[in-house]
Amino acid sequence: MIPDLAALQALGAAQQPTYPDPQAVDTAVAKLRGFPPLVFAGECDELKDKIAAVGRGESFLLAGGDCAEVFSQVNADNVRNKLRVLLQMAVVLTYAGSLPVVKMGRLAGQYAKPRSSDTETRDGVTLPAYRGDAVNGFEFTEESRIPDPQRLVEVYHASAATLNLIRAFTNGGYADLRQVHTWNTDFVRESPFAQRYEQMANEIEKALEFMQAIGADPDEFHRVDFYSSHEALVLPYEHAMTRIDSRTNDPYNVSGHFLWIGERTRQLDGAHIEYFKHLSNPIGCKVGPSATPDDVLGLANALNPKNEEGRLTLITRFGAGKIRDVLPPLVEKVRAEGVNVTWVTDPMHGNTFEASTGFKTRRFTDVLDEVQGFFDVHRALGTVPGGMMVEMTGDDVTEIVGGGEEIDEHGLAHRYESVVDPRLNRVQSLELAFLVAEMLRR
Length: 442
Ligand SMILES: O=C[C@H](O)[C@H](O)COP(=O)(O)O
Ligand SMILES: C=C(OP(=O)(O)O)C(=O)O
What we know:
Pathway: Metabolic intermediate biosynthesis; chorismate biosynthesis; chorismate from D-erythrose 4-phosphate and phosphoenolpyruvate: step 1/7
Protein name: Phospho-2-dehydro-3-deoxyheptonate aldolase
EC number: 2.5.1.54
Bound molecules: erythose-4-phosphate, phosphoenolpyruvate
Structural class: alpha/beta
Keywords: Amino-acid biosynthesis, Aromatic amino acid biosynthesis, Transferase
CATH architecture: Alpha-Beta Barrel
Protein backbone atom coordinates (compact mmCIF):
# COMPACT_ATOMS: atom_id res chain seq x y z
CA MET A 1 0.00 0.00 0.00
CA ILE A 2 1.30 3.45 -0.92
CA PRO A 3 1.29 5.72 2.14
CA ASP A 4 -1.13 8.59 1.74
CA LEU A 5 0.21 11.96 0.68
CA ALA A 6 -0.04 13.52 4.14
CA ALA A 7 1.94 10.64 5.67
CA LEU A 8 4.68 11.09 3.07
CA GLN A 9 4.77 14.82 3.62
CA ALA A 10 5.02 14.25 7.36
CA LEU A 11 8.42 12.67 6.68
CA GLY A 12 9.61 16.19 5.90
CA ALA A 13 9.90 15.91 2.12
CA ALA A 14 12.83 17.89 0.77
CA GLN A 15 12.68 20.41 -2.09
CA GLN A 16 8.89 20.86 -2.00
CA PRO A 17 7.13 24.11 -2.93
CA THR A 18 5.46 26.04 -0.14
CA TYR A 19 1.99 26.66 -1.51
CA PRO A 20 0.17 29.67 -0.07
CA ASP A 21 -3.25 28.01 -0.50
CA PRO A 22 -3.33 24.34 0.65
CA GLN A 23 -6.93 23.95 -0.50
CA ALA A 24 -5.91 24.78 -4.05
CA VAL A 25 -3.37 21.93 -3.84
CA ASP A 26 -6.15 19.53 -2.81
CA THR A 27 -8.26 20.68 -5.76
CA ALA A 28 -5.40 20.16 -8.23
CA VAL A 29 -4.56 16.74 -6.76
CA ALA A 30 -8.22 15.64 -6.95
CA LYS A 31 -8.32 16.67 -10.62
CA LEU A 32 -5.11 14.79 -11.40
CA ARG A 33 -6.35 11.65 -9.67
CA GLY A 34 -9.28 11.54 -12.09
CA PHE A 35 -7.17 11.88 -15.27
CA PRO A 36 -6.26 8.87 -17.42
CA PRO A 37 -2.75 7.41 -17.19
CA LEU A 38 -0.08 8.81 -19.51
CA VAL A 39 1.75 5.48 -19.76
CA PHE A 40 0.69 1.86 -19.25
CA ALA A 41 2.03 -0.41 -16.56
CA GLY A 42 2.83 -3.02 -19.23
CA GLU A 43 5.13 -0.54 -21.00
CA CYS A 44 6.94 0.10 -17.71
CA ASP A 45 7.45 -3.66 -17.27
CA GLU A 46 8.80 -3.90 -20.81
CA LEU A 47 11.26 -1.09 -20.04
CA LYS A 48 12.31 -2.82 -16.82
CA ASP A 49 13.24 -5.92 -18.86
CA LYS A 50 15.20 -3.76 -21.28
CA ILE A 51 17.07 -2.05 -18.45
CA ALA A 52 17.87 -5.48 -17.03
CA ALA A 53 19.49 -6.30 -20.39
CA VAL A 54 21.40 -3.00 -20.18
CA GLY A 55 22.68 -4.06 -16.75
CA ARG A 56 23.95 -7.31 -18.25
CA GLY A 57 25.81 -5.43 -20.98
CA GLU A 58 23.51 -6.59 -23.78
CA SER A 59 22.43 -3.07 -24.73
CA PHE A 60 23.16 0.56 -23.93
CA LEU A 61 20.76 3.10 -22.40
CA LEU A 62 20.59 6.55 -23.94
CA ALA A 63 18.56 9.07 -21.94
CA GLY A 64 18.44 12.69 -23.01
CA GLY A 65 16.42 15.85 -22.98
CA ASP A 66 16.08 19.23 -21.38
CA CYS A 67 17.28 20.08 -17.93
CA ALA A 68 13.83 21.56 -17.43
CA GLU A 69 10.99 21.42 -19.94
CA VAL A 70 8.91 24.58 -20.17
CA PHE A 71 5.23 24.94 -21.10
CA SER A 72 5.94 27.56 -23.77
CA GLN A 73 8.06 25.05 -25.70
CA VAL A 74 5.42 22.35 -26.02
CA ASN A 75 5.13 22.61 -29.78
CA ALA A 76 5.72 20.32 -32.74
CA ASP A 77 9.08 21.79 -33.79
CA ASN A 78 10.62 21.58 -30.36
CA VAL A 79 9.50 18.03 -29.65
CA ARG A 80 10.48 16.84 -33.14
CA ASN A 81 13.92 18.47 -32.95
CA LYS A 82 14.68 16.80 -29.64
CA LEU A 83 13.43 13.42 -30.81
CA ARG A 84 15.36 13.73 -34.06
CA VAL A 85 18.71 14.24 -32.32
CA LEU A 86 17.99 11.44 -29.88
CA LEU A 87 17.23 9.13 -32.82
CA GLN A 88 20.42 10.23 -34.56
CA MET A 89 22.46 9.65 -31.40
CA ALA A 90 20.87 6.24 -30.95
CA VAL A 91 21.60 5.23 -34.54
CA VAL A 92 25.23 6.31 -34.16
CA LEU A 93 25.61 4.35 -30.92
CA THR A 94 23.90 1.29 -32.40
CA TYR A 95 25.77 1.27 -35.67
CA ALA A 96 29.19 2.54 -34.64
CA GLY A 97 29.04 0.98 -31.16
CA SER A 98 27.48 -2.29 -32.40
CA LEU A 99 25.04 -2.51 -29.52
CA PRO A 100 21.22 -2.15 -29.34
CA VAL A 101 20.20 1.11 -27.70
CA VAL A 102 17.31 1.64 -25.27
CA LYS A 103 15.93 5.11 -26.00
CA MET A 104 14.54 7.31 -23.27
CA GLY A 105 13.68 11.00 -23.16
CA ARG A 106 14.01 13.32 -20.20
CA LEU A 107 10.69 14.62 -21.37
CA ALA A 108 6.91 14.61 -21.04
CA GLY A 109 7.13 15.37 -17.32
CA GLN A 110 10.56 16.93 -16.59
CA TYR A 111 9.05 20.15 -15.24
CA ALA A 112 10.24 20.36 -11.61
CA LYS A 113 13.71 21.31 -10.40
CA PRO A 114 15.47 20.93 -7.07
CA ARG A 115 17.48 24.07 -6.28
CA SER A 116 20.59 24.76 -4.19
CA SER A 117 19.03 27.89 -2.78
CA ASP A 118 15.42 28.78 -1.92
CA THR A 119 15.90 32.30 -3.17
CA GLU A 120 17.42 34.20 -6.07
CA THR A 121 18.78 37.74 -5.87
CA ARG A 122 19.07 40.08 -8.85
CA ASP A 123 20.16 43.71 -8.53
CA GLY A 124 19.44 43.69 -4.80
CA VAL A 125 15.97 42.16 -5.19
CA THR A 126 15.46 38.73 -3.57
CA LEU A 127 12.61 36.43 -4.66
CA PRO A 128 11.82 32.72 -4.31
CA ALA A 129 13.96 30.62 -6.68
CA TYR A 130 12.42 29.32 -9.90
CA ARG A 131 11.65 25.61 -9.31
CA GLY A 132 10.47 24.63 -12.77
CA ASP A 133 7.23 25.33 -14.62
CA ALA A 134 5.55 22.68 -12.45
CA VAL A 135 5.92 25.03 -9.50
CA ASN A 136 6.28 28.71 -10.43
CA GLY A 137 7.12 31.07 -13.29
CA PHE A 138 10.63 31.87 -14.56
CA GLU A 139 9.82 35.57 -14.89
CA PHE A 140 11.60 37.48 -12.11
CA THR A 141 8.56 39.09 -10.48
CA GLU A 142 7.01 38.51 -7.08
CA GLU A 143 3.76 37.28 -8.58
CA SER A 144 5.33 34.85 -11.02
CA ARG A 145 7.51 33.21 -8.37
CA ILE A 146 4.56 32.27 -6.13
CA PRO A 147 4.03 28.48 -6.31
CA ASP A 148 0.73 27.73 -8.03
CA PRO A 149 -0.72 24.17 -7.77
CA GLN A 150 -2.79 24.69 -10.92
CA ARG A 151 0.57 24.34 -12.71
CA LEU A 152 0.55 20.65 -11.76
CA VAL A 153 -2.57 20.20 -13.85
CA GLU A 154 -0.79 22.00 -16.66
CA VAL A 155 2.16 19.58 -16.32
CA TYR A 156 -0.25 16.74 -16.98
CA HIS A 157 -1.65 18.34 -20.13
CA ALA A 158 1.78 19.40 -21.43
CA SER A 159 3.13 15.88 -20.82
CA ALA A 160 0.12 14.30 -22.54
CA ALA A 161 0.59 16.52 -25.61
CA THR A 162 4.33 15.78 -25.77
CA LEU A 163 3.92 12.06 -25.33
CA ASN A 164 1.14 11.92 -27.88
CA LEU A 165 3.37 13.53 -30.48
CA ILE A 166 6.32 11.31 -29.57
CA ARG A 167 4.13 8.22 -29.94
CA ALA A 168 2.90 9.49 -33.32
CA PHE A 169 6.46 10.15 -34.51
CA THR A 170 7.94 6.89 -33.26
CA ASN A 171 5.12 4.64 -34.47
CA GLY A 172 3.90 6.59 -37.47
CA GLY A 173 6.90 6.46 -39.78
CA TYR A 174 9.21 9.29 -38.65
CA ALA A 175 11.45 6.89 -36.74
CA ASP A 176 11.60 4.42 -39.65
CA LEU A 177 15.28 3.55 -40.18
CA ARG A 178 14.87 4.47 -43.83
CA GLN A 179 14.53 8.05 -42.60
CA VAL A 180 18.16 8.17 -41.38
CA HIS A 181 18.97 10.76 -44.04
CA THR A 182 15.86 12.84 -43.38
CA TRP A 183 16.85 13.29 -39.73
CA ASN A 184 20.03 14.97 -40.95
CA THR A 185 18.43 17.49 -43.32
CA ASP A 186 18.83 21.14 -42.36
CA PHE A 187 21.81 20.20 -40.21
CA VAL A 188 24.77 22.55 -40.23
CA ARG A 189 26.46 20.95 -43.21
CA GLU A 190 29.90 22.31 -42.30
CA SER A 191 29.83 20.23 -39.14
CA PRO A 192 32.26 17.33 -39.59
CA PHE A 193 29.96 15.22 -37.43
CA ALA A 194 26.96 15.87 -39.70
CA GLN A 195 29.13 14.75 -42.63
CA ARG A 196 30.30 11.69 -40.74
CA TYR A 197 26.67 10.95 -39.93
CA GLU A 198 25.76 11.27 -43.61
CA GLN A 199 28.38 8.68 -44.54
CA MET A 200 27.11 6.34 -41.88
CA ALA A 201 23.53 6.87 -43.08
CA ASN A 202 24.63 5.83 -46.59
CA GLU A 203 26.07 2.61 -45.20
CA ILE A 204 22.90 1.91 -43.22
CA GLU A 205 20.79 2.55 -46.31
CA LYS A 206 22.80 0.03 -48.32
CA ALA A 207 22.52 -2.54 -45.54
CA LEU A 208 18.75 -2.02 -45.41
CA GLU A 209 18.42 -2.44 -49.19
CA PHE A 210 20.38 -5.66 -48.94
CA MET A 211 18.21 -6.96 -46.11
CA GLN A 212 15.08 -6.09 -48.04
CA ALA A 213 16.44 -7.84 -51.12
CA ILE A 214 16.88 -11.04 -49.15
CA GLY A 215 13.37 -10.74 -47.76
CA ALA A 216 14.12 -9.50 -44.25
CA ASP A 217 12.04 -6.49 -43.20
CA PRO A 218 11.48 -6.68 -39.44
CA ASP A 219 9.07 -4.38 -37.64
CA GLU A 220 11.98 -2.84 -35.68
CA PHE A 221 13.07 -1.06 -38.87
CA HIS A 222 9.80 0.86 -39.05
CA ARG A 223 9.16 1.93 -35.50
CA VAL A 224 11.11 2.40 -32.28
CA ASP A 225 10.26 1.94 -28.63
CA PHE A 226 10.78 5.25 -26.90
CA TYR A 227 10.27 5.81 -23.18
CA SER A 228 9.61 8.88 -21.05
CA SER A 229 11.34 9.76 -17.78
CA HIS A 230 11.55 12.58 -15.27
CA GLU A 231 12.68 13.36 -11.74
CA ALA A 232 9.69 12.54 -9.50
CA LEU A 233 10.13 15.55 -7.27
CA VAL A 234 6.86 17.28 -6.42
CA LEU A 235 5.03 14.73 -4.31
CA PRO A 236 1.43 15.96 -4.76
CA TYR A 237 1.80 15.44 -8.52
CA GLU A 238 3.62 12.11 -8.36
CA HIS A 239 1.29 10.73 -5.70
CA ALA A 240 -1.80 11.78 -7.65
CA MET A 241 -0.43 10.04 -10.74
CA THR A 242 0.07 6.73 -8.91
CA ARG A 243 -2.48 4.06 -9.81
CA ILE A 244 -3.12 0.42 -9.08
CA ASP A 245 -2.50 -1.77 -12.11
CA SER A 246 -5.62 -3.80 -12.83
CA ARG A 247 -3.56 -6.80 -14.01
CA THR A 248 -1.43 -7.19 -10.90
CA ASN A 249 -2.85 -4.88 -8.22
CA ASP A 250 0.59 -3.28 -7.98
CA PRO A 251 1.07 0.51 -7.80
CA TYR A 252 2.68 2.29 -10.75
CA ASN A 253 3.42 5.93 -11.31
CA VAL A 254 1.67 6.39 -14.65
CA SER A 255 3.06 9.86 -15.41
CA GLY A 256 6.24 8.42 -16.98
CA HIS A 257 7.84 5.07 -17.70
CA PHE A 258 10.98 5.68 -15.64
CA LEU A 259 11.17 7.96 -12.61
CA TRP A 260 14.26 8.97 -10.74
CA ILE A 261 15.15 10.37 -7.32
CA GLY A 262 17.47 13.37 -7.40
CA GLU A 263 20.76 13.80 -5.58
CA ARG A 264 19.11 16.27 -3.20
CA THR A 265 16.16 14.05 -2.24
CA ARG A 266 17.75 10.62 -1.78
CA GLN A 267 17.85 10.66 2.07
CA LEU A 268 17.25 7.06 3.19
CA ASP A 269 14.64 8.12 5.75
CA GLY A 270 13.15 10.76 3.45
CA ALA A 271 9.74 10.98 1.80
CA HIS A 272 10.98 10.34 -1.75
CA ILE A 273 12.67 7.05 -0.89
CA GLU A 274 9.59 5.98 1.06
CA TYR A 275 7.35 6.79 -1.92
CA PHE A 276 9.60 5.07 -4.47
CA LYS A 277 9.78 1.87 -2.38
CA HIS A 278 6.15 1.22 -3.28
CA LEU A 279 6.33 1.80 -7.03
CA SER A 280 6.61 -1.00 -9.56
CA ASN A 281 8.15 1.13 -12.33
CA PRO A 282 11.82 0.82 -13.20
CA ILE A 283 13.43 3.59 -11.15
CA GLY A 284 16.66 5.51 -10.90
CA CYS A 285 18.55 7.29 -8.18
CA LYS A 286 21.20 9.94 -8.69
CA VAL A 287 24.43 9.38 -6.80
CA GLY A 288 26.81 12.28 -6.23
CA PRO A 289 30.38 12.49 -4.90
CA SER A 290 29.39 12.43 -1.22
CA ALA A 291 27.87 8.91 -1.48
CA THR A 292 29.70 6.16 0.42
CA PRO A 293 29.61 2.46 -0.45
CA ASP A 294 27.27 1.94 2.51
CA ASP A 295 24.94 4.70 1.26
CA VAL A 296 24.69 2.96 -2.08
CA LEU A 297 24.03 -0.39 -0.46
CA GLY A 298 21.37 1.23 1.72
CA LEU A 299 19.68 2.66 -1.38
CA ALA A 300 19.73 -0.70 -3.12
CA ASN A 301 18.30 -2.50 -0.10
CA ALA A 302 15.56 0.08 0.37
CA LEU A 303 14.61 0.47 -3.27
CA ASN A 304 15.17 -3.04 -4.59
CA PRO A 305 14.71 -5.45 -1.68
CA LYS A 306 13.95 -8.35 -4.06
CA ASN A 307 17.20 -7.64 -5.91
CA GLU A 308 15.36 -7.65 -9.27
CA GLU A 309 17.38 -6.97 -12.42
CA GLY A 310 16.32 -3.78 -14.19
CA ARG A 311 14.49 -2.36 -11.18
CA LEU A 312 17.18 0.05 -9.96
CA THR A 313 19.48 2.23 -12.03
CA LEU A 314 22.15 4.22 -10.25
CA ILE A 315 22.88 7.38 -12.18
CA THR A 316 26.31 8.62 -11.09
CA ARG A 317 27.24 12.31 -11.37
CA PHE A 318 30.57 12.99 -9.77
CA GLY A 319 32.40 15.37 -12.08
CA ALA A 320 35.24 14.51 -14.44
CA GLY A 321 37.87 15.19 -11.78
CA LYS A 322 36.34 12.81 -9.26
CA ILE A 323 34.80 9.85 -11.05
CA ARG A 324 37.97 7.76 -11.25
CA ASP A 325 38.40 7.98 -7.44
CA VAL A 326 34.81 7.94 -6.22
CA LEU A 327 33.15 5.35 -8.47
CA PRO A 328 35.41 2.27 -7.91
CA PRO A 329 34.64 1.68 -4.20
CA LEU A 330 30.90 1.99 -4.89
CA VAL A 331 31.00 -0.48 -7.77
CA GLU A 332 33.22 -2.88 -5.81
CA LYS A 333 30.85 -2.89 -2.85
CA VAL A 334 27.78 -3.47 -5.01
CA ARG A 335 29.54 -6.28 -6.83
CA ALA A 336 30.84 -7.89 -3.63
CA GLU A 337 27.31 -7.93 -2.16
CA GLY A 338 25.80 -9.43 -5.32
CA VAL A 339 23.42 -6.52 -5.67
CA ASN A 340 21.74 -5.96 -9.05
CA VAL A 341 21.97 -2.39 -10.26
CA THR A 342 22.32 -0.88 -13.71
CA TRP A 343 25.06 1.76 -13.80
CA VAL A 344 24.45 4.87 -15.90
CA THR A 345 26.58 8.01 -16.08
CA ASP A 346 25.21 11.55 -15.89
CA PRO A 347 28.25 13.50 -17.10
CA MET A 348 26.49 16.84 -16.68
CA HIS A 349 25.67 17.62 -13.06
CA GLY A 350 29.14 17.26 -11.58
CA ASN A 351 30.68 19.52 -14.20
CA THR A 352 28.76 22.78 -13.87
CA PHE A 353 30.54 26.09 -13.28
CA GLU A 354 29.90 29.79 -13.75
CA ALA A 355 31.63 31.27 -16.79
CA SER A 356 33.47 34.58 -16.58
CA THR A 357 30.51 36.00 -18.53
CA GLY A 358 28.10 34.96 -15.75
CA PHE A 359 26.45 32.01 -17.53
CA LYS A 360 26.02 28.64 -15.84
CA THR A 361 27.91 26.31 -18.15
CA ARG A 362 29.88 23.09 -18.60
CA ARG A 363 32.91 22.17 -20.69
CA PHE A 364 32.34 19.66 -23.47
CA THR A 365 35.75 18.15 -22.64
CA ASP A 366 34.68 17.57 -19.00
CA VAL A 367 31.45 15.90 -20.11
CA LEU A 368 33.42 13.63 -22.40
CA ASP A 369 36.06 12.94 -19.76
CA GLU A 370 33.45 11.90 -17.21
CA VAL A 371 31.96 9.42 -19.69
CA GLN A 372 35.46 8.14 -20.45
CA GLY A 373 36.13 7.79 -16.69
CA PHE A 374 32.88 5.85 -16.35
CA PHE A 375 33.97 3.40 -19.07
CA ASP A 376 37.52 3.16 -17.66
CA VAL A 377 36.34 2.31 -14.14
CA HIS A 378 33.81 -0.29 -15.25
CA ARG A 379 36.19 -1.88 -17.75
CA ALA A 380 38.92 -2.08 -15.09
CA LEU A 381 36.55 -3.75 -12.63
CA GLY A 382 34.88 -6.02 -15.18
CA THR A 383 31.47 -4.44 -14.58
CA VAL A 384 29.04 -2.93 -17.08
CA PRO A 385 28.99 0.75 -18.14
CA GLY A 386 25.29 0.63 -18.94
CA GLY A 387 24.40 4.00 -20.40
CA MET A 388 24.35 7.76 -20.15
CA MET A 389 21.86 10.45 -19.28
CA VAL A 390 22.52 13.87 -20.81
CA GLU A 391 20.93 17.29 -20.85
CA MET A 392 20.56 18.16 -24.51
CA THR A 393 18.31 19.89 -26.97
CA GLY A 394 17.57 19.60 -30.67
CA ASP A 395 18.28 23.28 -31.23
CA ASP A 396 21.47 25.15 -31.99
CA VAL A 397 21.79 26.77 -28.58
CA THR A 398 25.08 27.95 -27.10
CA GLU A 399 25.05 26.82 -23.48
CA ILE A 400 28.06 24.47 -23.19
CA VAL A 401 31.58 25.59 -24.03
CA GLY A 402 33.76 23.64 -26.44
CA GLY A 403 32.90 20.88 -28.85
CA GLY A 404 33.66 20.96 -32.57
CA GLU A 405 32.04 24.39 -32.93
CA GLU A 406 34.45 25.69 -30.28
CA ILE A 407 31.90 27.79 -28.39
CA ASP A 408 33.80 29.97 -25.92
CA GLU A 409 32.61 31.76 -22.79
CA HIS A 410 31.73 34.88 -24.81
CA GLY A 411 29.86 32.82 -27.40
CA LEU A 412 27.47 31.58 -24.70
CA ALA A 413 25.51 34.83 -24.93
CA HIS A 414 24.66 34.16 -28.59
CA ARG A 415 21.79 31.76 -27.86
CA TYR A 416 21.55 30.77 -24.21
CA GLU A 417 17.95 29.63 -23.61
CA SER A 418 17.98 27.10 -20.78
CA VAL A 419 16.01 28.18 -17.72
CA VAL A 420 18.22 26.22 -15.30
CA ASP A 421 21.18 24.13 -16.48
CA PRO A 422 23.12 24.25 -19.75
CA ARG A 423 22.39 21.68 -22.47
CA LEU A 424 24.38 20.14 -25.29
CA ASN A 425 23.21 21.54 -28.61
CA ARG A 426 22.45 19.45 -31.67
CA VAL A 427 26.03 19.33 -33.00
CA GLN A 428 27.53 18.67 -29.55
CA SER A 429 25.03 15.87 -28.93
CA LEU A 430 25.92 14.13 -32.18
CA GLU A 431 29.61 14.65 -31.55
CA LEU A 432 29.25 13.07 -28.10
CA ALA A 433 27.40 10.10 -29.60
CA PHE A 434 30.24 9.42 -32.09
CA LEU A 435 32.86 9.65 -29.35
CA VAL A 436 30.92 7.43 -26.96
CA ALA A 437 30.35 4.91 -29.76
CA GLU A 438 34.14 4.61 -30.02
CA MET A 439 34.32 3.93 -26.27
CA LEU A 440 31.64 1.29 -26.66
CA ARG A 441 33.46 -0.40 -29.53
CA ARG A 442 36.70 -0.53 -27.62
O1 LIG B 1 19.63 20.33 -12.97
C1 LIG B 1 19.55 20.80 -11.94
C2 LIG B 1 20.38 21.71 -11.18
O2 LIG B 1 21.66 21.24 -11.00
C3 LIG B 1 19.71 21.89 -9.91
O3 LIG B 1 18.39 22.19 -10.18
C4 LIG B 1 20.36 22.94 -9.05
O4 LIG B 1 20.64 24.07 -9.69
P1 LIG B 1 21.07 25.35 -8.84
O5 LIG B 1 22.36 25.01 -8.16
O6 LIG B 1 21.23 26.42 -9.89
O7 LIG B 1 19.97 25.61 -7.90
C1 LIG C 1 18.71 17.91 -10.83
C2 LIG C 1 19.21 16.92 -11.54
O1 LIG C 1 20.24 16.16 -11.18
P1 LIG C 1 20.85 15.89 -9.74
O2 LIG C 1 19.73 15.42 -8.87
O3 LIG C 1 21.84 14.81 -10.04
O4 LIG C 1 21.47 17.16 -9.28
C3 LIG C 1 18.68 16.58 -12.89
O5 LIG C 1 19.10 15.56 -13.46
O6 LIG C 1 17.86 17.33 -13.38
